[in-house]
């Protein structure tokens, strides 16, 4: 089974059906970019994978585990909150806004979850945090507070913080769209490295050059459905569907 296997996922808010039966497979080590106009359901779908939202229908497996439910004799039972929290720990998520703790340094932000949630020793957590800071190019800023860092640096710390939990899957929700244009490149460069290192990633983005260069699969969503999916050279380079064509031509 692929690392992520989502089948016919539906989700409504009140009477607004935002996801109308989404299927998605992501193989281990692959990068999938989700593209589509605002309101098409991309963020909601990511949040469903990470169980920040409860799905109404369909099923999502991550690493062979059914998310949120146990399947016993063909019947679905909702998992306990503790079990859901354990599943969520395996998935890293990076948001548009970095959400770092403002009163903690970069290093302290990164060690927080491994210490509190996994009960790691201070030494182990700090050693890994320093390696991760080095990996995102910020080892020399380990003692800086978020307010002393640029937006791009804060987002790189947020990526390191997610990686500190050693996730099997990373979700990125428009990680560069709140950044000044000159800071976008440094965050995308870190994400590229992560992809090259073999991390499985699902990335909601409007950065076409990133999608073209890094994604194994590009998924174009509109109106809560997958309109078109495939390698970037097809979906971006030679889109078949008129809605994909219209979306891409607006970006150019
Ligand atoms: P995208 O990421 O493609 O811009 P979203 O998943 O953010 O799309 O939103 C899809 C639709 O779901 C939008 O119409 C949005 O208003 C609606 N929506 C998202 N979250 C909520 C919520 N918590 N309550 C009500 N409506 C929501």
UniProtKB/TrEMBL annotation:
Catalytic activity: a polar amino acid(out) + ATP + H2O = a polar amino acid(in) + ADP + phosphate + H(+)
GO-annotated molecular function: ATP binding; ATP hydrolysis activity; ATPase-coupled polar amino acid-transporter activity
Location of the ABC transporter domain: 4-248
Family matches, as Gene3D superfamilies: P-loop containing nucleotide triphosphate hydrolases
Enzyme Commission numbers on file: 7.4.2.1
Primary location group: membrane
Keyword ATP-binding: yes
Pfam families assigned: ABC_tran
Annotated CDD domains: ABC_HisP_GlnQ (cd03262)
UniProt-annotated location(s): Cell membrane
Record bears the keyword Cytoplasm: no
Keyword list, A-Z: Amino-acid transport, ATP-binding, Cell membrane, Membrane, Nucleotide-binding, Transport
InterPro entries, alphabetized: AAA+_ATPase, ABC_ATPase_HisP-typ, ABC_transporter-like_ATP-bd, ABC_transporter-like_CS, MetN_ABC_transporter-like, P-loop_NTPase
Similarity remark: Belongs to the ABC transporter superfamily.
Protein name: ABC-type polar-amino-acid transporter
Organism from which the protein derives: Kribbella sindirgiensis
Species lineage: Bacteria, Bacillati, Actinomycetota, Actinomycetes, Propionibacteriales
